[in-house]
């Protein structure tokens, strides 16, 4: 395999590339060696949030320094804007071809950044402009490069070096990208980036709202994922929609959230349910203009909106580091789709050390944790979706995540030990038969031993915050009948922690209200919504 005369452009990086992180410089060095070895179509795998735009800018800076012509292709206007900003930071002169950005058009420059859809429409479909000349073609979100409209552009540059970048180098179907690229360079593992502070760790909660038997009956689409219409009909039942909102209130109340629905109708139902629960929520779809989408993101960032519901629109090309919760209100059999959705929560932000992943679609149990190691391949004979499901099957020797039966938190025992770090649940050891002296010894009942008692600090704290919530929401009742309020808050505390005593402990009569935190407020709101729905069903 002979090297292209263009292959050496990455041998010497310009000074501006000094801002690249060590693992980014190492990946570019590996890319340089691959080009020197004769590979011409190479895809770089880099986890979501690891800095793909820096890799694009670094590669472009080196090519520009070597006097090469560069074409950068991006799949969405938001990505075009992000890459444009990075090129400006790297002081690289460039033109932009994108319908919403006509003021940045400059076809005379040797570096062109283009929306792939705009370029396809203008140069391939309408033939209103020639394709820009290029010695190097960079394609962001390269897992989408196999589409006919993308290949219609890429195949026009047979002599150019082709470099793709993606967090998930496979098609939605799970098949490899061997038809588009001939070499794959893997980036750092997600766990490495978490350990170095480049990404944040997920706290995963498995709260399925649909059983596996129902999912297996659903028809599949061309990519062997669940067919959208049938899946939407299954998940749009009011009870299931209500459970998504109720679980968010009890687990993630107040946290800025991206919620992924099946389709527009399902998304609209979720938004309506959030609004009825007093949560500021909006739906954003592919029918919305670019300006409308940007306004929704701006309101989410400002706190005016708490939950942005979408289908798959915000799974890539969206950089919102302050998002603290991802809700998978839909199942998927696609590893690519799953990791793209979960990756939206992994970017770090000021004061953010983790994010919540609430899985309602049995995705984690079928495809694994989002930060699990992955064996990516270009081999079109392999399927990463099927391999991920096989690794999570009962037959696999790979460690299975444990789900807490009390709070639905998911973790690996090898990483976090036997006990649930969220609620303290610990599996009871199996009782073994013992010989006893009559009337002297009895077998310990592990299953009924309470993990929380009325004297436990968490129970006392929750009771006081329940009082605070009651006093805030019903000030007159709190003033006129404080004992009734204490009784109601005690019943809530019993339900929360599974306490058996119906009588309020004497010490509780003296406890004073505390302002509730978001978790307590969310749980109490979910409890009131559940009670109201039960009451309405009885009335009907």
Key phrases:
alpha/beta; 8-stranded mixed sheet; 38% helix; 19 helices; 540 residues; single chain; 7-stranded parallel sheet
Description:
- The chain has helices spanning 22-36, 52-65, 77-89, 116-125, 148-154, 190-195, 212-217, 228-235, 238-251, 264-276, 290-302, 335-343, 363-367, 384-391, 413-416, 457-473, 475-480, 482-497, 518-539, and strands at 41-45, 70-74, 95-97, 111-115, 136-140, 161-166, 183-185, 201-206, 257-260, 281-283, 307-310, 325-328, 354-359, 402-403, 409-411.
- It has 540 residues and is an alpha/beta fold.
- The strands form 2 sheets. An 8-stranded mixed β-sheet has the order 10-11-9-12-13-8-15-14, sandwiched between helices.
- β12, α12 and β13 form a beta-alpha-beta unit.
- α1 packs across α2 (52-65).
- Residues 431-450 have low confidence and may be disordered.
How many DSSP H or I helices? 19
Largest sheet: 8 strands, mixed
Strand tally, please?
15
Output the radius of gyration.
Answer: 27 Å
What do the pLDDT scores average to? 88
Based on helices, strands and strand pairing, what is the structural class? alpha/beta
Oligomeric nature of the chains: single chain
What is the global morphology? elongated
Which parts are unreliable, with pLDDT below 50 for 5 consecutive residues or more? 431-450
Kindly estimate the percentage of residues that lie in beta strands according to DSSP.
5-15%
What is the helix fraction of residues, given as a range? Answer: 25-40%
Distance between the termini: 75 Å
Strand order of the largest sheet: 10-11-9-12-13-8-15-14
